[in-house]
Amino acid sequence: MSVTLPLTPEAMAELERRAAAAGIDVTSFVLSAVQEKLGERDDVPAEQLSYDEWKTEFHQWLASHAPRNPHFDDSRDSIYD
Length: 81
Known about the structure:
Helix content: 40-55%
Largest sheet: none
Radius of gyration: 17 Å
Strand content: under 5%
């Protein structure tokens, strides 16, 4: 089944950005979001997901969290005197 969504250019750009951050294509990102909204994925334990499904969900979760301090210097020189 195909569905056509009327998205603004801004919404499409944000969708593409989030899909790229999750490491997947836009179609997979939207399908995963729809499945999550419908509750199809809530009852599946992580152990039963394929590696690709788990990786997709992990990257989506990771992309939904902004870094707390993007300017933190964790280089070796800053840690050791």
